[in-house]
Amino acid sequence: MSRQGPADAPGGDELAERIAIGLLTWTFPAELVDRVLARTGRTEQRTRLLPARVVVYFVMALCLFPGLKYERVAELLSQGLVWRLGGTTDCPVPTAAALSRARARLGPEPLCELFAARAAMTVPGPGYRGLRVLSVDRAWFDVADSEENLAHFAPPPADAACAAAPGARGREPGTPRVQVVALADDAGRTIVDARIGAAADRVVVLARPLLRGTRRGDLVLAGFATAGARSWCTARHHGAELLWCVPADAEFPRHAVLSDGSYRSVLDEAGDCDSEDGTLAAPVRVLERTVDGRRLRLVTSLLDPAEAPADELAALFASRWRFAGALAEMTAGRSGDTGPALRARTVRGVEQEVWGHLLVHQALAALLRPETVLRETVRAAEPSALPARVVRVLRGRSGPSGPDRPARRVG
Questions:
Q1: Contact 53, 29 (CB under 8 A)
Q2: Torsion-angle region of residue 284: left (phi > 0), alpha (psi -120 to 50) or beta?
Q3: What was the pLDDT predicted at 369?
Q4: Residues 167 and 312 in one domain
Q5: Are strands 132-142 and 177-185 parallel, antiparallel or unpaired?
Q6: Domain count along the chain
Q7: Any idea of the CA torsion for 260, 265, 268, 272, to the nearest 10 degrees?
Q8: Which range marks the domain in which residue 167 is found?
Q9: Are 164 and 182 part of one and the same domain?
Q10: 325 Cβ contact list (under 8 Å, min separation 6)
Q11: In angstroms, rounded to a whole number, what is the distance separating the alpha carbons of residues 171 and 162?
Q12: Considering only 19-28, 41-50, 97-106, which range has the smallest mean pLDDT?
């Protein structure tokens, strides 16, 4: 069954909507957008009704207002840009067809580059014992079931069979999906790197370039299902420390039991950084703890319990920020059985829209910084007129995905 696109939502307070657009232009100033357009070869030789810079903001606005049609989003964008920059305008609102063509001309590359440029500005927050804490996680978007999307994003047959099983959230078998594997700053609760893939792509392959981007002074939290055992050596080669969750039935030889109950062991098949046959066994420390009633089995490259006690590591991992929850909140009413799919009906359009959602998340994360002047302006607006995701973030939350994390009970 073909899924329908968004319908017009009830009108709200125009000032609040313009403030929401102002959040985008404040986070991504025109000068930064223009530099990105120049680097990606999108600088235009003639004046258009929809210049590339405006289309970048339009894609982000589509993700900020997921329930509105193209023309209404374009109208809000026009009003918001004028309000932000001052002055008046009599420019006509482009048609949906013109907006679609403008999106196709722009492509996903400028938004990907803009995301990377903003991520490079991220100031690491307080970490764990001098280490910056990063998390690898994965999220999914259901996409429109156009012919092109079905050919590229359709899940493998095994996944389609699972979708048809009882309790599979009502997803139709063969629903095309795009996956996002990302690296997030735990303290700032913001995504700093990401890769986009089809449902059939192996998550460990998508995660590997993220791990290559880590460095000494980082502590990377992940699950073996996401990062893969052979990715361990990749991350360690670049100097990062690791704390990864492993299955309960994974076997590790006990080489030496340590003072906090953890023990030294080796992780076989960890990678081929220094071994021609790929059978390098990396030294690790294994710890098992129950945190708030949940049993965790973790392996870490932090081998000294005096410098990284097992109880601290278990509590840190249990409270790690899961960006998948943030993206689920960002796309509330647009994914799976909760509403229509992403708008785009082409592969490049889907990629562009995903980067748009990640950029909106960056804007929300920036809004939550204590020194953000715009934050109080947004708080003063009428909540019922603001985009739902902005309201959720501002209701006493310290991050785009939820409230401050409570203290964990470790046993």
A1: no
A2: beta
A3: 66
A4: yes
A5: antiparallel
A6: 2
A7: 90
A8: 125-325
A9: yes
A10: 401, 402
A11: 9
A12: 41-50
Say if residues 129 and 135 touch (Cβ distance below 8 Å): no
Q: What letters, b where the CB count within 10 A reaches 16 and e where it falls short, cover 278-300? A: eebebebbbbebebeeeebbbbb
Q: For the segment 148-199, what is each residue's pLDDT rounded down to a tens digit?
A: 999 999 887 665 444 443 334 445 667 889 999 999 998 888 899 999 999 8
Task: Of 330, 395, 406, give the one whose Cα is nearest residue 368.
Answer: 395
pLDDT of residue 340: 42
In angstroms, the CA 397 to CA 305 distance is: 33
3-state SS, residue 403? coil
Whole-number Å distance between alpha carbons of 396 and 400: 11
Q: Which helix (DSSP H) or strand (DSSP E) does residue 229 occupy?
A: none
Amino acid, single-letter form, for residue 81: L
Proportion of the chain in helix, strand, coil states, percent, rounded to 5: 40, 20, 40
The reply to whether 411 falls in a domain is: no
Domain stop point among 325, 355, 370: 325
Query: Does residue 143 sit in the same domain as residue 291?
Result: yes
In a domain? residue 3: no
Model confidence over 41-84: pLDDT tens digits? Answer: 998 766 667 899 999 999 999 988 888 899 999 988 887 776 55
Over pLDDT 90: what percentage of the chain? 43
CA distances 107 to 55, 112, 154, Å, are: 10, 10, 21
Structure tokens at 91: 């420019």
**Count of CB atoms within 10 A of residue 234's CB?**
22
Is residue 358 a part of any domain in this protein?
yes
Place of tokens 């594997």: 181
